[in-house]
Amino acid sequence: NRKHTDLRFHSYLNPGRAIDSEAQEVHGITEQFLEDKPVFSEVVDHFLEFVRGSELVIHNAPFDLGFLNQELELAGSPARLEDICEVTDSLELARQMHPGQRNSLDALCRRYGVDNSGRDLHGALLDAEILADVYLAMTGGQTTLTLERAFSREVGTDSIESRFLTDVEFPVTRVDKAELAEHRRWLELLDSDSPWHDIDQTNDGS
Predict the structure, then answer these.
(1) CA 190 to chain centre
(2) Residue 167 gets which letter from DSSP?
């Protein structure tokens, strides 16, 4: 139904190896914190049960699938993620929608007005929640969030407060002939065979 389910699978894991200093700078997680956490093989059944039959949206899916499927194999599981659930690569979708532009998660947040102010570190759960908002916006399901609700997110908890905006008027902006001509020029630079060139030539910006 194109809404957040509020269902989450989140588990810290002991990697069984030293954490690179570069990686620690990205996610802020220390070896000491992970010492008493389970290894992947201890949570794999629960994880597979959670994702089975679902659509899994991953930004740059081939990168993560490679690691996840390797861990499944090491854990003795015959399953591959793409065999038990539908995998959607949001990065590939973004590249199709916005060719030649930056399509990182941060760039898409800026493009679609998704709040990522709490993303100082690369945390998996927060990234997943932000990606859900971005994906809904990219595929047309974020309209309600953008036009009707302003969100206040308390970082580090699962609470999301919403405030409905009932008396907001959004301006309608029309283009003039000069702007339309500039738009067509950019389309020609992007792709001379683009179907966008079939824009009604009688459009006068009114």
Answers:
(1) 25
(2) S
Q: H or E element: which one contains 35?
A: none
Q: Specify the DSSP class assigned to residue 121.
A: S
Tens digits of residue pLDDT in 2-16? 778 888 999 999 999
Is position 169 within any domain? no
- What is the span of the domain harbouring residue 117? 21-141
pTM (predicted TM-score): 0.63
What 3-state DSSP class applies to 125?
Answer: helix
Is residue 83 situated within a structural domain? Answer: yes
For this structure, is 46 an active site residue? no
DSSP code for 100: T
Count up the domains in the chain and report the number: 1
Q: Annotated catalytic residue: which of 4, 98, 122, 197?
A: 122
CA distance 115 to 150: 10
